[in-house]
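The instructor's notes for this session suggest beginning with a concrete chain rather than abstract definitions. Hand out the sequence below and ask the class to guess, before any prediction is shown, which regions might be ordered.
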Amino acid sequence: MRQGHRADHLTLTRSAADPGPPPVVRETGDSVVVELDGEIDILALQRMTPLLDTVAAGPYRVVAVDLTATTFLDCSGLTLLVRASRRTRARGARTTVVCRHPLTLRIIDVAGLTETLTPVPTLHEALR
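After discussion, reveal the predicted structure:
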């Protein structure tokens, strides 16, 4: 948990020993969905880069990264998403981010990545 989340009056922080839930990967036709959960930060970048590299290099027309269950996204998370997007574009496919959280959408916008990550509010829209 990030600072500010309290349990029994103790502030908890996530450590390398508790990397958070693993991503869920689902194929759907010629697309793939990668569901990320929890905090997408430097620890997640280190843990998820090999997975997203493999998925982005795969045969999929669309790589949909679902951020619906994420609770935090920092510049490391943006790096992870941009890396996947560049790899899919290099082979003529695309990466789309599923996100409805206003703060995450604002971070993507302020970073100038709206066109690169093409955020959409639903998985259905991402897979079109």
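Then share the key points. The chain has one domain: 18-126. Residues 108 and 114 are 6 Å apart (CA to CA).
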